[in-house]
């Protein structure tokens, strides 16, 4: 999905994959890892930032938390949510805030 506001674009990936085990090699963890890969690829190839919306239970997983700085350096940000009523509005507001505060290279999507 592409999110656009005031001429700024970002890709949004939403997944409700539930955390099962903390192991990086577990199948559900691999699903999350594939989304992280495509987020970084999107930014590097198209200069379009990506937001990955995932279940808040993933916030407890050490290997994922260690990747947050790398992802943000590469135009990708993980947003944790509970997927309960109102989650979409909360995520939208966080995306808008991030795009407003981000450096120019993060704000401008091209070729998307």
In short:
This protein has helices at residues 27-46, 62-65, 68-73, 87-101, 104-107; strands at 2-5, 8-14, 50-55, 76-81.
Based on the model shown, name its key terms.
112 residues, alpha/beta, 4 strands, globular, four-stranded mixed β-sheet
Query: Globular, elongated, flat, extended or rod-shaped: what is the shape?
Result: globular
- Nearest-integer average pLDDT: 82
Structural class: alpha/beta
Number of strands: 4
Radius of gyration: 14 Å
Order of helices and strands: EEHEHHEHH
Uncertain segments are 107-112
Estimated share of beta-strand residues: 15-25%
Widest sheet: strand order?
1-2-3-4
Notes on the protein architecture:
The chain has helices spanning 27-46, 62-65, 68-73, 87-101, 104-107, and strands spanning 2-5, 8-14, 50-55, 76-81. By secondary structure, it is an alpha/beta fold. The protein has one domain (2-107). The longest helix is centred in the first third of the chain and has 20 residues, at 27-46. The chain starts with a strand and ends in a 5-residue tail after the last helix.
Produce the secondary structure layout.
Elements: E1 2-5, E2 8-14, H1 27-46, E3 50-55, H2 62-65, H3 68-73, E4 76-81, H4 87-101, H5 104-107
């Amino acid at each position: 999905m592409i999110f656009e506001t005031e001429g700024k674009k970002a890709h949004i990936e939403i997944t409700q994959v539930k955390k099962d085990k903390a192991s990086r090699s577990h199948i559900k963890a691999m699903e999350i890892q594939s989304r992280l890969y495509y987020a970084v690829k999107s930014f590097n190839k198209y200069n379009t930032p990506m937001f990955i919306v995932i279940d808040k239970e993933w916030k407890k997983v050490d290997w994922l938390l260690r990747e947050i700085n790398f992802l943000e350096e590469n135009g990708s940000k993980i947003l944790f949510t509970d997927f309960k009523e109102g989650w979409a509005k909360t995520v939208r507001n966080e995306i808008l805030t991030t795009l407003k505060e981000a450096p120019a290279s993060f704000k401008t999507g091209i070729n998307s």
